[in-house]
Write a structure and sequence with these properties.
mainly alpha, globular, 78% helix
């Protein structure tokens, strides 16, 4: 009988599975391009829409061929999420604590990709979704449970930690471990895109975590507004327009980096 690690290795040996996982990186890049563009629009005009995954998927749905593109997003992100699950079983480290930490990291990625795939599926089947609404609903449910304030605050701390890790990963170029860096000018451009992208994404994610913390302290789930609310809150800071434009450009850079990663990722 094949053990879980052997089964995971066998699944990853499929060229079709690897191709679909790489597609997942590409469609993730497309969503970040759209989110970054929406963020820039919010900063420079009164409109823009929702600067989050739901907003990006809504934009795709409204374009010619959008229905087809949504199904491509569903398939790509579902495959990438499943690939990350197989990675959980392939983690190997003599240090037990480090091994479980790595497994938790891979599992977290899987959950994130699969969650977006589910949201894309709703749009592809004619429905809709609100990332901000879902975040507020989750916050309200947590606040309604015993110890909910503490739980929500811990969620906020965890999200802030993820954001700070993204910033660290960008600043130290640690993301280069995930890809086979192209040579020459393309390689240099990839480094710059990755740095700007990870730092911008980290800032946005960290602010999402802060808003979770605010919701916990004020016991008001409406304060937890997800990525869209986080980006809009940046616009309210001193020099907020410039900050939001910079973060938007960074998210666009992250999107382009994801396209490069789709081809060069170490899978």
């Amino acid at each position: 009988m094949t053990n879980p690690r052997g089964a995971a290795r066998q699944a990853q040996s499929s060229d079709a599975f690897e191709m679909l996982a790489r597609l997942g990186y590409a469609v993730n890049g497309l969503l970040h391009l759209i989110i970054g563009a929406i963020a820039i629009t919010i900063a420079t005009t009164a409109g823009g829409g929702s600067a989050d995954q739901s907003g990006a998927l809504g934009r795709l749905a409204s374009t010619p061929g959008g229905g087809f593109l949504l199904w491509v997003v569903v398939v790509g992100l579902a495959a990438l999420g499943l690939w990350q699950i197989t990675q959980v079983f392939r983690v190997s480290d003599p240090d037990t604590k480090k091994a479980w930490g790595k497994r938790a990291k891979e599992a977290g990625k899987a959950v994130a990709y699969l969650a977006i795939a589910v949201t894309a599926f709703r749009f592809a089947t004619g429905g809709s979704s609100s990332s901000s609404g879902d975040t507020q609903s989750l916050s309200a449910q947590l606040l309604g449970t015993p110890g909910g304030v503490i739980l929500l605050f811990l969620v906020g701390l965890g999200v802030v930690a993820v954001g700070l890790y993204f910033i660290y990963k960008g600043a130290t170029k640690k993301f280069l471990e995930d890809i086979r860096t192209p040579s020459g000018t393309v390689g240099s451009a990839t480094e710059r895109l990755g740095q700007a992208g990870y730092i911008a994404k980290g800032i946005a994610v960290a602010v999402v975590g802060v808003l979770f913390g605010v919701a916990a302290v004020t016991t008001d789930p409406a304060e937890a507004t997800g990525l869209d609310g986080a980006l809009r809150s940046l616009a309210e800071l001193p020099f907020g327009t410039a900050i939001l434009v910079a973060v938007g450009i960074g998210l666009v850079a992250y999107g382009v980096y994801c396209f490069v990663r789709a081809r060069t990722a170490r899978l």
